[in-house]
Amino acid sequence: MPDITTRPDLEKLMEQFYRKAFADDLIGHYFTEVVKVNLEKHIPVIVDFWESVLFDKGGYQGNVMQVHQHLHQLSAFRDEHFQRWVTVFKQTVDELFAGDASEKLKQRAESIAMVMRLKTVHGGIGKP
Q1: If you ran DSSP here, which 8-state letter would residue 124 be given?
Q2: Of 55, 122, 59, 112, nearest to 89 (Cα)?
Q3: pLDDT tens digits for range 83-114
Q4: For 33, which of 4, 21, 29, 75 could close a Cys bridge (C-beta 3.0–4.6 Å)?
Q5: pTM score, two decimals?
Q6: Is 124 left (phi over 0), alpha (psi -120 to 50) or beta?
Q7: How many CB atoms lie within 10 A of CB 79?
């Protein structure tokens, strides 16, 4: 399998991931009911984010933590939501790609999810 090397690779990954996430019985409602994500608009933004994470490109202009803190206020996250997100994300990467960049992306996704979980579900880093 190829590794993730380009923006189109990330686009393919995000399109496949969101198809799965929308259909997931545990986290799907965040995308279909809480926010009603418009993929045509969201994919370029989220690809900008992951491109900055993976390739150190500066295209992402948002505040991903602020967005997720707002989502948490609308419909509270639980630990299992983050666990499922990470599982679905990593499975999707593994189905499409293999290599150093793919492994880096999965590690970064897990780290980002952990920080978001700590700052939302647990109210801040350092709290149980």
Answers
A1: S
A2: 112
A3: 999 999 999 999 999 999 999 999 999 999 99
A4: 29
A5: 0.91
A6: left
A7: 10
Residues listed for the chain: 128
Find tokens 């409602």 and name the residue. Answer: 29
Give the model's pLDDT for residue 107: 98
- The tokens for 63 are 């505040």
Residue 83 structure tokens: 């666990």
Give whole-number Cα distances, 98 to 9, 75, 107, 110, in Å.
12, 34, 13, 17
**Residue showing tokens 């590794």:** 3
pLDDT at residue 126, as a whole number: 45
Q: CB 15: neighbour CB atoms within 10 A?
A: 13
